[in-house]
Design a protein that fits this description.
The chain has about 170 residues and is α/β, with parallel strands linked by helices. The protein contains 5 helices and 11 strands. Helix 1 packs across helix 5.
Length: about 170
């Protein structure tokens, strides 16, 4: 059974808590958690996994969370090859305060890692979400799992369970 690397950035702890819940739902015995601020050293940490989950909240006008900024700059400079890696994305947003860029950081991660050869899976329907615009929407779906613990905390657990069911079909190794 392959291990799954879960890498997340979390300024306020929200994305970190969701990463921990995901590890529990996927099976803690098969997941390794990495806080980008504390645990990330270089891309070799990621490249040892065939299956990856990346968690990133959206800040300001659609930017990635601070812990992802330097790694994304390094990704452009170092150009590591993510071919053969399967990645699923999840992230926090605030549709009331930032509905004009709701979870757009996921779209940034999607483009960066796809350009490095990764296969991205785990798209999630936009139905039931309220927002003006999101760079994370492709072909009518979010590129990963968005959640809003500020305005829709009551929907997070159900959405996580639905998303894990999707991942188990298209992502997780047998």
């Amino acid at each position: 059974m392959s291990r799954i690397g879960i890498f997340y950035g979390s300024s306020s702890g929200v994305t970190g808590k969701v990463a921990e819940k995901l590890a529990g739902l996927l099976g803690e015995d098969r997941c390794d958690l990495f806080n980008m601020e504390e645990d990330f050293v270089d891309f070799d940490d990621m490249l040892k996994y065939d299956h990856l989950l990346f968690g990133c909240s959206t800040w300001g006008s659609g930017e990635v969370q601070n812990d992802w900024r330097d790694p994304l700059l390094d990704l452009a400079n170092e150009k590591p090859d993510f071919s053969g890696k399967t990645i699923a994305l999840f992230g926090a947003g605030d549709y009331v305060a930032h509905g004009e860029q709701f979870v757009s950081a996921l779209g940034i991660l999607y483009d960066k890692f796809k350009a490095r050869g990764a296969t991205l899976v785990g798209s999630f329907p936009t139905d039931g979400y309220t927002y003006e615009y999101s760079f994370a929407v492709r072909d009518g779906k979010f590129v990963g799992l968005p959640f809003d613990k500020i305005n829709e905390a009551d929907k997070t657990d159900e959405r996580l369970e639905r998303w894990v069911a999707v991942l188990q079909e298209e992502f997780l190794p047998a």
